[in-house]
Amino acid sequence: MLDKAKQSKLGSQTIFVNELTNGILDPAAPMLGPVADGGTIIANTAPGCWGPMITPEIRGGHEVTRPVAVAGAEVGDAIAIRIRSIVVTSSATASGNDEPMAGRFNGDPFCAAVCPGCGVEWPRTRVEGIGPTAIRCEARMRHHLPLPMAIRSRSTTSDRSV
């Protein structure tokens, strides 16, 4: 049996990834692993493209799994990744529609979300019901502002919520 220090340098044969990054890859954040050269990474990914239209608390345009270091690899090295299988683990998903909505972001609509009702950046949200007014800003709820949180879009007459 290898001691922990030697195994850490050589990497593990299999790494399980079940953590997400909040949509941002931070070079200062620790990686999982390392996985051994030729090893296997088993990752559980987010069930769809959440995006700031549905979950504005996520600070990047897409949720991604936590990165995994590869034993012996250095910055600038190329690695080959082979996908052995993909298993669908969610029978339902939700997604944005890639249409930025005025008043719901500061700058980049995919990573600078803001609540149009209270102005909180990257607001925590909760789901209440279904449809265009189902996503609710929790900060707005704390301030006892009226529900539903819907605003009128200039391009359509339908209500849209945060």
Along the chain, the helix and strand elements come as HEEHEEEHEE
Measured by DSSP, the beta-strand proportion falls in 15-25%
Tell the overall outline.
elongated
The pLDDT mean sits at: 76
Question: What does this protein structure show overall?
Answer:
With 162 residues, this protein is mainly beta. It has 2 domains: 97 residues, no CATH class; 64 residues, no CATH class. The protein contains 3 helices and 7 strands; from the N terminus they run H-E-E-H-E-E-E-H-E-E. It has a 3-stranded parallel beta sheet, with helices on one face. A two-stranded antiparallel sheet has the order 4-5. The longest helix is centred in the N-terminal third of the chain and has 7 residues. It is elongated and about 50 Å long.
